[in-house]
Amino acid sequence: MSAGGRKTACVTGGNGYIASALIKMLLEKGYAVKTTVRNPGDMEKNSHLKELQALGPLEVLRADLDEEGSFDDAVADCDYAFLVAAPVNLHSKNPEKELIEPAIRGTLNVMRSCAKAGTVKRVILTSSAAAVSSRPLQGDGHVLDESSWSDVEYLTARKSGPWGYPVSKVLLEREACRFAQEHGISLVTVCPVVTVGAAPASNIHTSVPVSLSLLSGDETQFGVLEGIEMATGCVPLVHVDDLCRAELFVAETDTAAGRYICGSHNTTIVELARFLADKYPQYSVKTNLLSGELLEKPRVRLSSAKLVREGFEFKHNTLDEIYNDIMEYGKALGILPS
């Protein structure tokens, strides 16, 4: 508890998309926030943090996932630690060395600092639905919940597409769990699906360009969207505000435990293309991207029933609600023509 009776939260990776939205929400809820970035002087990546400081006490500290002990100051005196920073190199030539090992090492570095701090009541780890859904499934109608894990042996044997990403998420979840048990740390894991919506960060390379690729015509980003549908059996979506509210919900709910899938809508690229063509005719959906291999309806659904059963309510459930503020954000980021 910080001076003035505010609760204090640490959010790692403050220049990231989800982290920036989470910092904003925590400040608006009256938290004091400490966030970490690799290079605080890089204003191109961090200018939004300056603006967020107008909302409340926000301290920006230097820390690097690769450096043991570099998170000690950031988590000292914090009530909660939100582990959001992670390497996201989907097109790495050597996923073991460039993605999987750094992801596990970085997570354990922050967890060690939390154990050292002694004040952290709960660690909230942001993993990914990629740790749930990358597995061979025959036929249709599957519903995946928190008991489902991506198949590491299958992914490692096939090595197709960005296989290192789901593997890194599964392994870092398991290592974080093991560490938390050994050190008596309360750990809750959130597995967000494809996250959409406006956030304070203005320099991002994640799900937003992917979710706008049907309108931008960016073939690389569309390839990622196609890869998600092929690997998952659907395109699962959540609005970034709902994700941040869920992160806060599992932090503050004493009984929260284990993993939580966070997604409010399962769709397909074909359904998404129809919705966007209808809703935003001024952009024209790039139908040349759509091949014959795409699903009409989801074969698989990712379920957030556990989160809802424990009292959480999604505010953005339809495509219309999920895409409500993304166009302006897409223009501001230069993804869409303004």
Architecture overview:
The protein is an alpha/beta fold and 338 residues long. It has a domain at 8-203 and 238-263 and 301-308: Rossmann fold (3-Layer(aba) Sandwich), CATH 3.40.50. The chain is 42% helix and 16% strand. It is built from 15 helices and 12 strands. It has a 7-stranded parallel beta sheet, sandwiched between helices. Helix 1 packs across helix 11 (240-252). The longest helix is centred in the first third of the chain and has 23 residues, at 95-117. The radius of gyration is 19 Å and the shape is globular. The chain starts with 7 loop residues before the first strand and ends in a 6-residue tail after the last helix.
Which topology of the domain at 8-203 and 238-263 and 301-308 does CATH recognise? Rossmann fold
Quick one: how many beta strands? 12
Shape: globular
N-to-C SSE string, H for helix and E for strand: EHEHEHEHEHEHHEEHHHEHEEHEHHH
Low-confidence stretches: none
Number of helices in the DSSP assignment: 15
Provide the residue-averaged pLDDT. 93
Sheet of most strands: 7 strands, parallel
- Main sheet: which strands, in order across? 3-2-1-4-5-7-10
Question: What is the CATH top level name of the domain at 8-203 and 238-263 and 301-308?
Answer: Alpha Beta
Q: What radius of gyration results from the CA coordinates?
A: 19 Å
Give the name of the CATH architecture of the domain at 8-203 and 238-263 and 301-308. 3-Layer(aba) Sandwich
Write out the CATH superfamily name of the domain at 8-203 and 238-263 and 301-308: NAD(P)-binding Rossmann-like Domain
Helix and strand composition category: alpha/beta
Strand content: 15-25%
Can you give the helix content as a percent range?
A: 40-55%
Query: What is the end-to-end distance?
Result: 44 Å
